[in-house]
Amino acid sequence: MAQPATLRKEAGIIGLLYASLGGIIGSGWLFGPLHAAQQAGPLSVWSWVIGAGAVLLLALVYSELATLIPKSGALVHICRVSHGVLLGNIWSWILFFAYVTIAPVEVMAVLTYANNYLPGLIHSDSGLLTATGFVVSVIMLGFFVALNFLVIRWVLFINSAATWWKLIVPAATIFVLLGLSYHPENLHVVPANAKQDVGGMFTAVATAGVIFSYFGFRQAIDLAGETANPSRYIPIAVIGSVVIGLLLYVGLQLAFLLAIDPADLAHGGWAGLRFTGLTGPFAAIATAIGATWWAVVLYIDAIVSPAGTAFIYVTTSSRVNMATAEIGSGPQALAILNRSGVPWVALIVTFVVGALFFFPFPSWQKLVSYISSVTVLSYSIGPIVLLQMRRSMPETKRPFRLWAAWILAPAAFIVSNWIVFWTGLETLSILFGMLFALVVVYLIYYFVFTKRATRKPLDWQHTWWLLPYFGGLWLFTKLGPAIVGGNGAMTLFEDMGVIAIFSIVIIWIALSTTVPDDEARQVVSEMVQLPASISP
Description:
By secondary structure, the chain is mainly α. The chain has one domain (about 15-415, about 515-525): Amino acid/polyamine transporter I (Up-down Bundle). Helix content is about 70%, strand content about 0%. The chain has 23 helices and no strands. The protein has helices at about 15-25, 30-40, 45-70, 75-80, 85-100, 100-115, 130-145, 150-180, 195-205, 210-215, 220, 230-260, 280-290, 290-325, 345-355, 365-380, 380-390, 405-420, 425-450, 460-465, 465-480, 490-510, 515-530. The longest helix is centred in the middle third of the chain and has 36 residues, at about 290-325. The chain is globular and about 70 Å long.
């Protein structure tokens, strides 16, 4: 009898570090500094620091969780530990949308830049794809999916090679721009109402592509089942990638602020900053300061960086899809591996669903806001699961142990909710509306099409806290300032203070409604021993 295919444990420390870095350095650096500067002016530098600090808190939480449950698609497996089947299903859907949308966004970034020299791919007025752009996008996404049919060793080799380029070009851009155009007086250009920049410093984290850019740290976590030494390699890859990303993005933001011609800020300041080639801000600056040769390099990188990120996100998205099958929230076919140890059905699903996001969606920045919201929301369960596992399994050996977990985990949860709040009311309404629709469809399927004898308990008693959690986030955003789409009943900082207190209350409720400790231990035991595949 043929042995079932299994995931190959061929990912080393460099491969995992570059997987996370490859996810971090994508289209964010090409567009983020401009959008952040428009919202926060010189304070945009601190937007990148705030974003890195928030992500580092989450990365530390997930470093402990992922080393306890070292499986590919680990985030999906983790989410059902503390509150049972229904919450696990809901969170697997959140994670699915958080992952499968990234590659299409990066492909759109490639076409947005390419539209400068190959016009006709993007509608200049709306930023949406033309018919030609749609066809090119689908073909490009299909190419990345096809490359992912290679064994994981070769996938990570391709990504590592691309990451070298993706590191060198942004780093060199900092020195090229500052060497040819240095205007420190730009840092003193602030709007008449300085509070606008302060508020923008926070909202830019969520809506300008800042937090979106750092999300790549999770790539190493999602490949945990494909490395021989996860307890050592994952924390190094996760934390190291965030620190390197922080240094690079702060440098790029400073270079952007200092290289701009002061005349471009004379009318409208940073909020009114526009370029003729708006779809290529760094290339536009390079051309304006006489470095046309470097603008050519940047247009090449505008293909390599987003394409490399799209490629590695296709890899990890397929692992997340595979994990939904392993926990029972997705079709079992998603866990089928081919002889090379590749989840080929999950890859095809990644392609099909990803292609749907090329249909008329808002611009790159709008879609990034949605992804930032859904992704941070998907991470918010981690601090709660970690505290539950500390409480229910205190004796379990932890390869990586988060220091001061009962302080840092709640802090990570608070910051997650702040970022979701900063994305704005419109984005939250879309996100929670989609989740509500999915839950309704699931309940119809559960009660109408599932035989009573085969139904698993819904675990309502462990899941009801999501209603006040999601409802409270939406309500406090509605009561927030105009900058997040609220009615102005509270200022930005008043609202953040209320959300911080609200977050602590939600943690208390969530930890009061967890599954029994012995059930949590059983779930972890089953996950660690789950088969890595289904035989084709």
